[in-house]
Structures
1.
Amino acid sequence: MQSNKESRIFLIGYMGAGKTTIGQQLATRLGYKFLDMDYVIEEKLQQSVSQIFSEKGEKEFRRLERECLDKISTEQNVVVATGGGAPCFYDNMERMNAYGLTVYLCLSPEQLQERLELSHKNKRPLLAQREGKELLDFIRQNLSEREPFYRKATLVVSGTDEEMFQQILSFLSSHS
């Protein structure tokens, strides 16, 4: 049995860190529901994150993210993939720590660049039109700004998706 705090698991980290992939696996293994905050917001507004950013701006998107987090914080038995910036605005990180287990999927800027260049980075408004060294420099700068928030997580894991998944399971089994 998981403690009440571990009935909500928030996966945080930079874009491309594996929050959705690992979150879906973890939810399946634990018998929990999986929620991707970006997807929840997209469904509510019937617009992509990119559309929301371009039409409403980042400030409005961050407000919507906070609203989504408030709603999710009342759910039980849920694994949540947060948006990469979600922990860095308002008191979101403190709120997630208060209501659940926070896990930082920690990858190097080079690992993130490789993953993001292979993924659909055009779906990621902050990365549009960036590639190669420009992308890596952007990730380094952006990650250095976000890292202090990410480091407030209860658990920090790194490695491949499978290694991070196993580290989370190990942590959960040692705290049950």
2.
Amino acid sequence: MARGPRYRRPPKRRHEGKTDYHKRLKLLKSRKLRVVIRISNNHTRVQLIKSKLGGDQVLISAFSKELSSKYGWNANTGNIPASYLTGYLAGLRAKKNNIQVAIFDLGIFYHRNRVLAACKGLIDAEIEIPYHEEFFPDNLEERIKGIHIENYAKKLKSNDPENFEQIFSGYIKKNKVNPLKISQIFSDSIKKIENNA
């Protein structure tokens, strides 16, 4: 560890690797609304935040838990389709409140594919957010619809039925969801979000 009379320890959140203050300052200087996406193992939260001198103000918020209670998404809320739906829901709410333009504030980039799915949801809801096309991987559209989950479930069910029952037990027993029909549940949830958001 560095020592000496001129050494100063960095702020706690910088030292822990949680906040990049140089990047944050650039985002604040833009004076645009920030889209903050935070992902845990089981949930996604998307917020549109206005920076103020006294503290940030949350203007729009969407939480993946809402999908199961209001929009018919009975599957796991910690996967790529659920992240996309949460971003899409936040985007539609922003449009209702006349918010057209924002910028991404992704922070430290954990759970990359789910963060990108939530970003894609906001963009598909027609919120103007600057991004590069190569930002999104080629197979993201397929993964957003849950087709990769369906394919994996089909493969397991035909090759190893016992393992299928074990891996998808949360879907089948707890939520009573057929993992072979995730894309259908996804499209039904999108319609409910568009009609009720």
